[in-house]
TrEMBL record:
The active site is at E135 (proton donor), D275, E368 (proton donor), E389. It comes from Eutrema salsugineum. GO terms for biological process: carbohydrate metabolic process; endoplasmic reticulum mannose trimming; ERAD pathway. Belongs to the glycosyl hydrolase 47 family. SUPFAM superfamilies: Seven-hairpin glycosidases. The keyword Transport does not apply. Keywords: Calcium, Endoplasmic reticulum, Glycoprotein, Glycosidase, Hydrolase, Membrane, Metal-binding, Signal, Signal-anchor, Transmembrane, Transmembrane helix. One of its GO terms (cellular component) is endoplasmic reticulum quality control compartment. Its EC number is 3.2.1.-. It comes from the Eukaryota. Ca(2+) binds at T472. This is alpha-1,2-Mannosidase. Residues 1-27 form the signal peptide. Its cofactor is Ca(2+).
C-alpha cells in the first residue's frame, strides 16, 4: 500500500564529486549555452512545420509535406479501412487547434490570438462526418479546452483584444455531440460517432481500453468549465465500468465489446490500446483529487510492475494468467518513464528510458514495433510517424533530475529529426526506419507534442510559472484547487502556495526539485560525451525478489531498496 509521490518530494540523489575532473561552473555554462542554442533550433522546427501547414494545408486537417498538399484526416484517424468518409468535408483545422497551446508556450501571442479568432468565426462541428471518439477527444476537444484556459489566464496575457469564451462554446458543442456514443448497455462508448447524426446504423461495437478509458481529463474539464455534469459523468461511468472488467490480477485486455462488455483481446500491456488508460488515472487524480482515481492507478501500476516488467523492458502478458504473450517494444510505450516520474519512481524511469534511447540511437529514430525476443524490427511495422513519447519522457526526467545527460538525449533527437524527416514542405513521417524512406504525412501531434516537449526540455519557463498536467496529446491544463473534491496531501507542503485566483502555484517547477550529476569519466573537457550518474543497472534484471538483499541500491537516492510484498524491488513508503 503506497502513497503517491510528487517528484519534487523525491529525495535528492547524493551528489558524486568529480571536481578534480570537471569544473562544475564550466559545465553549467555549457549547459545554459546548449539549452539556449537547442531552444532556438526547436523553435525553428516548429515554425517550419507550422508555416508550411498554414501555407499548403490550412484549413484542412493535416499537411502532406512531400507534395505540399493536405489531408482531411479527422474522419480517417484510426479508420484503417477508410469507411464512411464524408464527400463534402473540407477539414476542421485540426493542426491549427493542436498548435495553439504550443504557440502559447513559444510566446507567440499574435498567432495564438489570430488562430482563436479564425476558429471562433469559421469552425463548425455540424458536419456529416464519422470520427473516432478518442482521437477527436484528445486532439480537438483537448486542444480547444487547453487554449481556452490559456486565453483566460491573466498571467499569460495572450489575448490583446476581446475574448468571450468562444473556444469554450465550441468545446461544449463538440462535447454534446459525443454523448450519444455513451448510450450503450454498459456505459462504455462506441469508438465511432457521426458528429451530425450520432451513432450510425450497424456501427462496430469493438473499441480499445484506451479508447473508452482515456476521456476523463477533457470531458471532466469540460464539465467543470460549463457546469454541465453530463460530460464528466459519462466518462467516469465508462472508466468505472472498465475497471470492474479487470481480471483478478488487476490487468485489462486491449480490446472489448461496448454492448456485451466482453473482452475480445486478452493480451495486456502498457503499450498501444492500453497506454493512456494508465496515464489518465494518475493525471485525473492530480487534476481532480478524487481518491478513486489514485486507488485504481495504484492497483494497475503495481500489476504492471509485477506482470510486465523484465529488467528495463515491459513485455505483454495475458490478463487472466499473467503469463507473457508478446515480447515486444512499441514506440507508444516510451511515454511510461514520464508517467513513472510523476509517481516518483525515478530509478525505474531512468532504466527504461535508457533502453528506448538505445533503440533510437541504433536506428536514428524509434521504430513502431521492435521484437525483444528476436532483437529485430517487426517486419511490417517499421515506421516512425514523428511520435513524441520519447521526447515527453526525456522532458519529465530532466525536470525531475536536472541531469544534463537528458539535454544530450534531446540534442540527439533534434539532430535526427532534422537529418531524416525535414523536407522543404515540413516534416515527413518515416515509412521504413531501415531505409529512411519517407511518407507524405505530417501528423498534428508533431506540433502539439514532439516540438512542444523538446522545446520545454530546453526552456522550462512555462512550467515554472504554474503547475500543469499535460493531456495524452500534450495539451496543458492548469491544476486548480477549485476542481478538487479533496486535495491530495502532497499539495499542502513544499514550495506550493495558494493564490487569490484559486490556483495552485509553485515558486519553482513542480518537477524541478531533484538534482543528479552527470559525469565525464577521466576528462577535463566538459564537451565530451557524458554518462548519467543516475543510470545504475538493477542487481536482479527480472526484478523478482525473495529478500531485501537481492534488491541492490537505488540509483536515485543511493538507499538500499527493499523487496515488496508482491515480490519486486523498490523504495516504498507505506501508507
Amino acid at each position: 500500500m503506497f502513497r503517491p509521490l510528487n517528484p519534487k518530494h523525491v529525495f535528492l540523489c547524493f551528489l558524486i564529486s568529480f571536481a578534480f575532473f570537471i569544473d562544475p561552473s564550466s559545465l553549467q555554462r555549457l549547459d545554459d549555452a546548449k539549452k539556449k542554442q537547442m531552444r532556438e533550433k526547436v523553435r525553428e522546427m516548429f515554425y517550419h512545420a507550422y508555416d508550411n501547414y498554414m501555407t499548403y494545408a490550412f484549413p484542412h486537417d493535416e499537411l502532406k509535406p512531400l507534395t505540399k498538399s493536405f489531408t482531411d484526416s479527422l474522419s480517417e484517424l484510426g479508420n484503417l479501412k477508410l469507411e464512411h468518409l464524408p464527400t463534402d468535408y473540407s477539414g476542421s483545422a485540426v493542426t491549427l487547434v493542436e498548435s495553439l497551446s504550443s504557440l502559447a508556450i513559444l510566446g507567440n501571442k499574435t498567432e495564438f490570438e489570430k488562430g482563436i479568432h479564425w476558429l471562433s468565426e469559421n469552425l463548425t462541428f455540424d458536419i456529416d462526418a464519422r470520427v473516432n471518439l478518442f482521437e477527436c477527444n484528445i486532439r480537438l476537444l483537448g486542444g480547444l479546452i487547453s487554449a481556452h484556459l490559456l486565453a483566460i489566464d491573466p498571467t499569460n496575457r495572450l489575448i490583446q483584444g476581446s475574448y468571450n469564451n468562444q473556444l469554450l462554446r465550441l468545446s461544449e458543442d463538440l462535447g454534446k455531440r459525443f454523448l450519444p456514443a455513451f448510450e450503450t448497455p454498459t456505459g462504455l462508448p462506441y469508438a465511432w460517432i457521426n458528429l451530425k447524426n450520432g451513432v450510425m446504423e450497424n456501427e462496430t461495437t469493438e473499441t480499445s481500453t484506451s479508447g473508452c478509458g482515456s476521456l476523463i481529463l477533457e470531458m471532466g474539464a469540460l464539465s467543470r468549465l460549463t457546469g454541465d455534469p453530463r460530460f464528466e459523468s459519462a466518462a467516469l461511468r465508462a472508466l468505472r465500468q472498465l475497471w470492474r472488467m479487470r481480471s483478478s490480477l488487476d490487468l485489462l485486455g486491449t480490446t472489448l465489446d461496448v454492448v456485451t462488455g466482453k473482452w475480445l483481446e486478452y493480451s495486456s500491456s502498457i503499450g498501444a490500446g492500453v497506454d493512456s488508460f494508465y496515464e489518465y488515472l494518475l493525471k485525473a487524480y492530480i487534476l481532480f483529487g478524487k481518491e478513486d482515481y489514485w486507488r485504481m492507478f495504484r492497483s494497475a501500476y503495481l500489476a504492471s510492475q509485477k506482470y510486465f516488467r523484465h529488467g528495463p523492458w515491459y513485455h505483454e502478458a495475458n490478463m487472466w494468467s499473467g503469463k507473457p504473450t508478446y515480447w515486444q517494444l512499441t514506440s507508444l510505450q516510451a511515454f511510461w518513464p514520464g508517467l513513472q516520474v510523476l509517481v516518483g519512481d525515478i530509478a525505474a524511469a531512468n532504466s527504461s528510458h535508457r533502453e528506448f534511447f538505445h533503440v533510437w540511437e541504433r536506428f536514428g529514430v524509434l521504430p513502431e514495433r521492435y521484437l525483444l525476443d528476436h532483437q529485430m524490427i517487426h517486419p511490417t511495422e517499421k515506421y516512425y510517424p514523428l511520435r513524441p513519447e520519447l521526447a515527453e519522457s526525456t522532458f519529465y526526467l530532466y525536470q525531475a533530475t536536472k541531469d544534463p545527460w537528458y539535454l544530450d538525449v534531446g540534442e540527439t533527437m533534434v539532430k535526427s529529426l532534422n537529418l531524416y524527416t525535414k523536407v522543404a514542405g515540413g516534416f515527413a513521417s518515416v515509412r521504413d526506419v531501415t531505409t529512411m524512406q519517407l511518407e507524405d504525412h505530417q501528423h498534428s501531434f508533431f506540433l502539439a507534442e514532439t516540438c512542444k516537449y523538446l522545446y520545454l526540455l530546453f526552456d522550462d519557463s512555462f512550467v515554472a510559472k504554474r503547475n500543469y498536467i499535460f493531456t495524452t496529446e500534450g495539451h496543458p491544463i492548469q491544476v486548480m484547487s477549485s476542481w478538487h473534491e479533496k486535495l491530495p496531501e502532497s499539495y499542502f507542503s513544499g514550495n506550493w502556495t495558494f493564490s487569490k485566483s484559486g490556483a495552485w502555484e509553485s515558486r519553482a517547477s513542480a518537477l524541478s526539485m531533484q538534482v543528479c550529476p552527470s559525469i565525464a569519466p577521466n576528462s577535463r573537457r566538459p564537451e565530451q560525451h557524458r554518462e548519467s550518474a543516475c543510470h545504475v543497472p538493477d542487481e536482479k534484471m527480472d526484478h523478482r525478489c525473495w529478500s531485501n538483499k537481492e534488491c541492490g541500491v537505488d540509483a536515485t537516492t543511493c538507499r538500499q531498496r527493499s523487496c515488496s510484498g508482491v515480490g519486486f524491488c523498490g523504495l516504498w513508503n507505506p501508507l
